Amino acid sequence: MATEHKTFTLFTFLTVLLVGLTSVMARPSYDNEAMKGAYFPSWAQNFTPSSIKTELFTHIYYAFLTPNNITFKFNIEHSEAIQLVNFTSTLREKNPSVKILFSVGGAAEGPVLFSRMASSPSSRMSFIFSSIEVARKFRFDGIDLDWEFPQTPGDMVNLAHLLHEWRLEVQKEAESTSRPPLLLSAAVYYSADTFLSGPERAYPSVSVSKNLDWINVMNYDYYGAWNTTATGAQAALFDPESNLSTSYGLGSWIRAGVPRSKLIMGLPLYGRTWQLKDPMSHGIGAPAIDVGPGPDRTGVLTFAEVVEFNRERKAKRVYDMATVSVYSVTGDLWVGYDDPKTVTVKIGYARNLGLRGYFFWAVNGDYKWKISKTASKLWSL
Ligand SMILES: *[C@@H]1O[C@H](CO)[C@@H](O)[C@H](O)[C@H]1NC(C)=O
Ligand SMILES: *[C@@H]1O[C@H](CO)[C@@H](O)[C@H](O)[C@H]1NC(C)=O
Ligand SMILES: *[C@@H]1O[C@H](CO)[C@@H](O)[C@H](O)[C@H]1NC(C)=O
Ligand SMILES: *[C@@H]1O[C@H](CO)[C@@H](O)[C@H](O)[C@H]1NC(C)=O
């Protein structure tokens, strides 16, 4: 009896295992596919769509398009239309399987236009119809909302309506044209419900989960030129002393109920610089007096520029394993950034959490594709 029972259990176990494996294997590869995203800043100098190493990415975002601030429709000028056609046709030619989206808004646009657009059903509809029209006309696979950031609880309610109505229209359009539905995503704040400024508020996580295909969580910009009193790890994975970290931010989205299969971890291909108060005191959080190198006092260097900075100035590199970040220091100049080593740890962390993938801001910041290659290889292991 005991033996029979054991045999039965083993048989049941094997069957369950086999059925499980079969269903995993039978799932469309689309479902399992890791997401390896990257934003393309359309204003970048000396960097064209054809220079993107498309085999390293699954999703590429054109940054940015912005609707008119009165009609909330997109008015694409002739020169931009040419750029969009070039973007989608160049990328498709290089890699037919890469998904191409356009991203709406961005940090420079700020929150006001979106807040007004989302505040009434008619302006939401103008925006939604126009966005679908632009996507189809220029052969994009989807649309990415980059509202940085909803400022009030009211904005969050309106965002929920916008996403719901957008999804409905995208479904209707797909049915009436018999085409695959456009993809819908959004770039969101590092945390679902902890904001460093403004009133307390939380993203509408039910609407986000239901209506978006995924969200790109902006796990960077924790510290920067807006505060020159101290250095900071702008994309720290961990911070034992505060909630300003990628692990906290991703955890907040998971606690908010957004499925892990819809969460994409953000990785910066840039660093942030400061001028130290005292060259001898150069840790993370060391006193500073100004921003460091970078154009227009932004205190921003791309990873490629950081590599050059390190080489030219023979900067000392320091790994900080507590935060999973690296910084370089030379004299009173300091830059904190991510490199292949920190990205390796972050990719391992995101995979263990069961997230869908990662994305980079921005694709032109890498040095000889080193970080992009490291991330892509690790996620596919
Ligand atoms: C809309 O944009 C125009 C052009 O950039 C600007 O002059 C105007 O102030 C904006 N209007 C509103 C209501 O934001
Ligand atoms: C895109 O533009 C580039 C640079 O202007 C040009 O060399 C290339 O032929 C264009 N490609 C397509 C597919 O339009
Ligand atoms: C600036 O950064 C320091 C160190 O992170 C922090 O203690 C201080 O509160 C910040 N100041 C402002 C105005 O945010
Ligand atoms: C971090 O967030 C948690 C809630 O998620 C809160 O209980 C805690 O006080 C916060 N810690 C700090 C240092 O702000």
Automatic annotation (TrEMBL):
InterPro entries according to UniProt: Chitinase_II/V-like_cat, Chitinase_insertion_sf, GH, Glyco_hydro18_cat, Glyco_hydro_18_chit_AS, Glycosyl_Hydrlase_18
Boundaries of every GH18 domain copy: 34-381
**What superkingdom does the record give?**
Eukaryota
Which SMART domains does the record cross-reference, listed alphabetically? Glyco_18
Q: Report if keyword Acetylation is assigned.
A: no
Q: Amino-acid biosynthesis as a keyword?
A: no
Enumerate the GO terms in the molecular function aspect: hydrolase activity, acting on glycosyl bonds
What family does the entry list?
Belongs to the glycosyl hydrolase 18 family. Chitinase class V subfamily.
Q: What is this protein called?
A: GH18 domain-containing protein
Q: Which UniProt keywords apply?
A: Glycoprotein, Glycosidase, Hydrolase, Signal
Q: Which SUPFAM superfamilies match?
A: (Trans)glycosidases, Chitinase insertion domain
Signal peptide range equals: 1-26
